[in-house]
Amino acid sequence: MELNDKPLAVSEAQARSLEWMTTVGVERVSLFEAVGRVLAETIPAPHDLPPFDNSAMDGYAVVAADTAHANEASPVRLEVIEQVTAGQLPRQSMSSGQAVRIMTGAPLPEGASGVVIQEQVRREGNTIWLTRPVKEGDNIRRRGEDIRAGQAVMSAGECLTAAHIGVLAAFHRAFVTVRRRPVVAIVATGDELIEVDEPPSPGKIVNSNAYALAALVRAAGAQPLVLPLVRDDVAQVEAAFAEAAATADLVVSSGGVSVGDHDLVKPALERLGLEARFWRMDEAGKAAPVRSPAGAAMLRAARQSGIEHGLFSPVCASGARQNAGLARSPLAASRSARPAGARGQDEGRPPNLSAGASGVD
CA 107 to CA 52: how far, in whole Å? Predict the structure, then answer.
């Protein structure tokens, strides 16, 4: 591997990493499973939304012209001919001098041109009096006011939010085609590591990075696959990366990338025939994005706590998003996800790993 000695800027490291990222396949999921997923199809509106003219308020549908001269001294008298509630259809059309009691969301009767809210009406029996004019279109939601039939309401590459789900349901879409979640394998190496449920032992530390990385992977919209701890043994390290490359879309590793006697990741990857694009990145320790023969991209970091967190945000998260087919893959803040006490942490800087209104940004 011919690697850079000088650390790359975060933006350059991200650009080199994204050159290798491919888009994963698709699957169909129900709307209940679709929030936070990346849409893989364009959705045209099959009909207008709203699908019919309807009342925006509880009140009375009227012929607006009948009320043009209504005032306190000379109220306009109208006859109530029926009542229409949401989910019902009007049984008759309206004429001048008539009104229809109407509820929010109910279809507008033929002949009506405005709705007066009930608080502005005095009613006695089947008669109402109005003391102010009603304008054409008052309190009416027109057919197609929100979305017109044939309009592209969603495009491939959008991250689905609750608002998207509501619109899809309104258009009778029970299922939608999305990109599958990229699988991100997490490989931690080191004789000093123990699992979180093992008792403390002299000279040992908990493999906390694997848990933090798994959380970051999930927050970026991908599916973490945490592999068993790998000891400082060349054969074990090589076997672990071979398995990870064969089963995941992206591989993130922690440990073994320095120049010590037990930093075995680099020689193991060389034996696997992996191609590296760089080895070091500014302010995030040593890191290398690598493409395996099987096609999985890899990202590696040194063992120190906090390095993986700062490195994941700008490089790995954007890679996972591009894997998932997201239309936008912005550069996240390089230090925003570091744990408290990590060297070089930016105070008060929020993480940038959420998904647009949702899981993936």
Answer: 7
Q: What is the mean pLDDT of the chain?
A: 78
d(CA 278, CA 1): 9
What is the C-alpha to C-alpha distance for residues 10 and 18, in angstroms, rounded to an integer? Answer: 12
Domain boundaries, given as residue ranges, for the chain: 10-24+181-323, 31-46+149-178, 54-141
Q: Any idea which residue has 């991250």 for tokens?
A: 159
Task: Kindly state the tokens that stand for 73.
Answer: 């001294």
Contacts of 347 (CB under 8 A, 6+ apart): none
State the Cα angle at 120 between 114 and 124, rounded to 5°: 100
Helical H segments across 223-264, by residue range: 234-247
- Say how far apart CA 252 and CA 309 lie, in whole Å: 11
> What pLDDT, in 10s, does the model give residues 36-72?
999 999 999 999 999 999 999 999 999 999 999 999 9
Domain 31-46+149-178, CATH: 3.90.105.10
Place of tokens 């006011």: 145
Query: Which CATH architecture fits 54-141?
Result: Beta Complex (2.170)
